[in-house]
Design brief:
This protein is of the alpha/beta class and 430 residues long. It has 12 helices and 15 strands. β1 and β2 form a beta hairpin. The protein starts with 16 loop residues before the first helix and ends with a helix. Bound molecules: 4'-deoxy-4'-aminopyridoxal-5'-phosphate. The site of 4'-deoxy-4'-aminopyridoxal-5'-phosphate (PMP) has 15 residues, from α4.
């Protein structure tokens, strides 16, 4: 998964002298584990709204970065960051109102049952902490994840991220279930099928003496290829997991903060209240902040045994940034914009059939299958499109087990005319 749309270092010789030197310097200093996107790596120097600019002054419409979700370098967020950074920044073992104001505002966006917020710096850490709490509460160790899920990079969470490939073994007590595939012909069957797979996994855990701890899913199944519909399909599987004594962890790192347009959180599309919700990416609009929300009774035992401290998580600067992000989403109506512009984008992409396969998604998170003449995933064509669009000034990515699903996930401030410009460029290329 981490190699999707990756630049091949062997091709460095084909780059211009300046870019080649930069790519080689990077490889020398950062080592070979790092990847770059695109056949021609991008060197970005500036951003504003949904536009980024490269070192040569070329502008690109950013339809990929869900982190800077209220817009690159949003002035209100930057001002909040600068003001607090100029005043004080300390860890969370001192009293400070920012973290409380932020927690209050964040929790107010969620169902009342989710009573506590805890802060980390990355989504991986948030999932790691959620996993510790879930295992502690249930006394279990078995976690169910989908077959091409990605949840993060700590040792425990990488082992629950099958998309990392065979080099990173799936945890022994985990069970992997197929993603809830979109079934255009019979949408009602999606939830039943997914719940049946989850029950099978629970039965297999029982047979092997493994106590179930959690169902951990990204509520948009992003890495699996974006499976959003029909809203509500998750409910039956979650009920099965709870009946087995385990908890439901909603990974909202991708769908959260209004991206789906109709709801602020992805789990709300499914009419669910998770036991734990993990957050990240857009939370700080580029500033590294993440965290979780949890039901108080689930946190109780963990809290009585283990003190929680994260040096940077929830510091006054991060909290000021997080608060500004929430305010901008509300003041600028970005959720409604995601719904409006997302619907336009989705309809426009659907109108490009049969050159494009199935179009799925919610709000401003859209996946598009790229298939060959026989309907099979076409990895090469998807890669070709991603790179051709980059050359035309449009940034998107790819996802799914075969990297054949175009991943379109722009900042929530994407304007109607920007979406139309992208659709015209794509139509031309197709
Ligand atoms: N969960 C999901 C669904 C993600 O997509 C990611 C990051 N791609 C993470 C967790 C991990 O977040 P981070 O990279 O901030 O550790």
């Amino acid at each position: 998964m981490l190699k999707v749309n990756a630049f091949d270092q062997q091709q460095a010789a084909s780059l211009g002298a300046d870019q080649r030197q930069r790519v080689e310097r990077r490889a020398r200093l950062l080592g070979p584990a790092y990847q770059l996107f695109y056949d021609q790596p991008l060197h970005l120097v500036q951003g504003s709204g949904a536009t980024v600019t490269d070192h040569a002054g070329k502008r690109y419409l950013d339809l990929y970065n869900n982190v800077q979700s209220v817009g690159h370098c949003h002035p209100k967020v930057v001002a909040a960051l600068a003001a607090q950074a100029g005043q004080l920044n300390v860890h969370t073992r001192y009293l400070h109102d920012n973290v409380l104001d932020y927690a209050e505002r964040l929790l107010a966006s969620m169902p009342a049952e989710l009573g506590h917020a805890m802060f980390t710096c990355t989504g991986s850490e948030a999932n790691d902490l959620a996993l510790r709490i879930a295992c502690d509460y249930t006394g279990g160790s078995g976690v169910i994840v989908t077959e091409y899920a990605y949840h993060g990079i700590t040792q425990a969470i990488a082992a629950l991220s099958p998309s990392m490939g065979s080099y990173v073994p799936v945890a022994r007590d985990a069970r992997v279930v197929p993603a809830p595939r979109h079934l255009p012909g019979s949408p009602q069957a999606v939830g039943r099928q997914f719940a049946a797979e989850v029950r099978k996994a629970l039965a297999d855990m029982q047979r092997h003496g493994i106590k179930p701890a959690a169902l951990l899913v990204d509520t948009l199944f992003t890495s699996d290829g974006v499976f959003a519909d029909p809203a509500g399909f998750l409910a039956e599987a979650v009920a099965a997991v709870r009946a087995a004594g385990a908890v439901f962890i909603a990974d909202e790192v991708q769908p959260g903060f209004g991206r789906t347009g109709s709801h602020f959180w992805g789990f709300q599309r499914h009419g669910l209240v998770p036991d734990l919700v993990t957050l990240g990416k857009p939370m700080g609009n580029g500033h590294p902040m993440a965290g979780l929300a949890v039901k108080p009774d689930i946190l109780q035992r963990f809290a009585s045994q283990a003190a929680y401290f994260n040096t940077f998580g929830g510091n006054p600067v991060s909290a000021a940034v997080g608060l500004a992000v929430l305010e901008v989403i509300e003041e600028e109506g970005l959720m409604a914009n995601a719904e409006r512009v997302g619907a336009l984008l989705k309809a426009g992409l659907q109108s490009l059939a049969p050159a494009l396969g199935t179009v799925r998604g919610a709000g401003l998170f859209i996946g598009v299958d790229i298939v060959d003449a026989s309907g099979q995933p076409d990895t090469l064509r998807a890669r070709g499109l991603v790179n051709a669009l980059r050359d035309e000034g449009f940034l998107i990515g790819a996802a799914g087990p075969a990297s054949s699903v175009l991943k379109i996930r722009p900042p929530l401030c994407l304007r109607r005319e920007e979406a139309e410009r992208f659709l015209s460029a794509l139509a031309r290329l197709l």
